[in-house]
Target: Alpha-hydroxy-acid oxidizing protein
Amino acid sequence: MTGGFRFRLTGRTPPLDVEGWRRRAGRRVPPMVWAYIENGADTERTLGENRSAYRDWYLNQRVLTRTTDVDLTTTVAGTRLDLPVAVAPVGLAGAAHWHGDLGLARAAERSGTRMVLSSASTYSIEEVARGTDERHWFQLYPWGDRALTASLMDRARDSGFTALFVTVDVPVYGNRLRERRTGMGLPPTLTPRRVLQAALRPRWAYAYLRHRRTTLRNLVPDGTRGTAVESVTVQSENLTADIGWNDLEWIRSRWDGPLFVKGVLHPDDAERVVDLGADGVVVSNHGGRQLDAVQPTVRALPAVAQRVGHRAEVLVDGGIRSGADVAVALALGARACLVGRPAVYGLAGGGADGVAEVLRILREELVRNLTMMGVAASADLAPHHLTPAPR
Ligand code: FNR
Model:
């Protein structure tokens, strides 16, 4: 080592892991927005267990394996990815940072992966298509209003989105208590204290007032200022529990490209989805935001992968916060993972650059782990690379 020091004015290092980005994000956005990002449904048991269930597994270390140049490539929905981690759809991303969905998409493509654009995005389908270099994927809620659903599918197709992710775990909106307690309802309820809390995050408040990226622009296509509440109302009025298999059949018949169904936990549902012609499933419980007390996704994954993995692409999301978590998910049968909150932490903490940094950290962690596990390619991961931890 050559001698000498590097000199910095403060000792604060940039976040080194996803948890560091989480802490930074929590300092940057007002409590109302933070509650929206972080909270789960009801008791938040599933939210917590999505994370803790990864501790049920140990990674197997192997030595003297000459593992160099670890290969992380995979293919999802016909798109080659350089990283087996894509960005999950997150609604209202513009509340975290004005770069919003466009920042998520640009960071994903810079990182060799893709984003699933939420129906409830704060940049419209067309804005994201115009602002990006690669073709991304679109998430659709099967709205009660078929004309609205059809128009979103058409707009996504015409804008070049290549795959459709139909989210089926929101027949009703989950009971998210932290959100409700902090006034993130319809309309959001402001109090002098909440306004002051926002003002105390001047960087966020300034950008919010300047860019106002909180309108769900797909739902009020010409909407700009003043229509945020109106757009969220369109969304909530169109949520319906009155959707069934025939609706999925109808969506399948209207969409030519790859179709994934997101929000599947039961292998019987996964099988039926694939029988109906879906190309893949996302094992997901919506990040613990919908039905509380369901299984954590990493527990549900093996049975789904076993049932349909030979004829459909199986993805998983929920609680993935490190390269080690990604390795476990892939070993248990996922072709790739999606990350929701980690991407939003990056966005809130540093805009598109923050998201890219979170994805870089996950990549580095995964490469380092696979090197020490003696696994040359993430696609080779299999159950024998793991040991169950004693319960
Ligand atoms: C979501 N999620 C979600 N899913 C979806 O299909 N459409 C959506 O609009 C949203 N919106 C949304 C907002 C926020 C703030 C969060 C945190 C999540 C769920 C998301 O796609 C994904 O399933 C979970 O986020 C995965 O869990 P982790 O990675 O956040 O633990």
